[in-house]
Amino acid sequence: MGETGRLIALVPCAGTGSRAGAVQPKQYQSVAGRPLVEHTLAALAAVQRIGRVLVVVAPQDAQLSATAHWEVARCGGTTRAESVCNGLQHLLAHGAHASDWVLVHDAARCLVTPALVNALIDACLPDAVGGLLALPLPDTLKVARAGRAVQTLERSDKWLAQTPQMFRLGPLLSALEPHRAAGFAGMTDEAGAMELAGHAPLLVPGSLLNLKVTWPQDFALAEAILKGQAT
Ligand SMILES: Nc1ccn([C@@H]2O[C@H](COP(=O)(O)OP(=O)(O)OP(=O)(O)O)[C@@H](O)[C@H]2O)c(=O)n1
Ligand SMILES: C[C@](O)(CO)[C@H](O)COP(=O)(O)O
Fold it and tell me: Which residues of this protein are annotated with the site description Transition state stabilizer (predicted)?
């Protein structure tokens, strides 16, 4: 792809899944017959334009090994942003270029489809900045105090961020790295770092089904959707 930059997927997979209440990190919990992260990686592997997949796991994590379809880097950090930033550094040190496009995708979003990833790529490749899958808010948005609604917010300009989030490696690393000293406080996604660096990422419509397994009940939901997709 030369000047236009290659496409690389970076999968942060070093979380503990504290909200999911499972006995092991949620990305390794069995869902529809295989570890959750393997569904994620199978979807990314089916996107022909992605030439390389790097999974970032925790330093002591021996649960995931490299295959012909993905590499593993044991450089996960204490926050998602640190894991991503370390993964970007790893890529730069191992053959990637600053001009390459990186699609950062949560291991925990195992319901992503090749069609969604391709839609993001199609929208972002011609763009100077890059962007993310996201959804307009389907519900009324409340401000809460002590368990009571105290205000209803205008929601027409609010979107729910999903992943993948697609940016060029160099600008993304430059946007994230300055936040390392502060422990990446408030850096919950790549687009947020790009916004603070003065960019306006493209919002590309995602899907309600591209949920992030976060809470205990999400495992059953993900399993039902995966089984539905298989039929
Ligand atoms: N230090 C971390 C924290 C999170 N992640 C990854 O980032 C993705 C999204 O994060 P989240 O859903 O918050 O995962 P956890 O941090 O594992 O969950 P929790 O916040 O409930 O502990 C997951 O694939 C997770 O493995 C990571 O690579 N490194
Ligand atoms: C990146 C993300 O998936 C966008 O919605 C999300 O922010 C990551 O999860 P967290 O719970 O905010 O860590």
Answer: 19, 26
Q: How far is CA 95 from CA 50, 73, 98, 185, in A?
A: 15, 14, 10, 29
Tell the residue nearest (CA) to atom 9 of ligand 1. 106
What does 75-101 look like in DSSP terms, one character per residue?
---SSHHHHHHHHHHHHHHTT--TTSE
Q: How far apart are CA 43 and CA 40, in angstroms?
A: 5
* Claim: this prediction has a pTM higher than 0.90: yes
Q: What is the pLDDT of residues 134-153, one digit of tens each?
A: 999 999 999 999 999 999 99
Q: What domain range includes position 105?
A: 2-230
User: Counting ligands in written order, which one lies closest to the CA of residue 106?
Assistant: 1
ipTM of the prediction greater than 0.95, yes or no: yes
Nearest CA to ligand 2 atom 9: 188
Q: Best of 10, 19, 79, 80 to mutate for ligand 2, by most ligand atoms within 8 A of CB?
A: 80
How many structural domains does the chain have?
A: 1
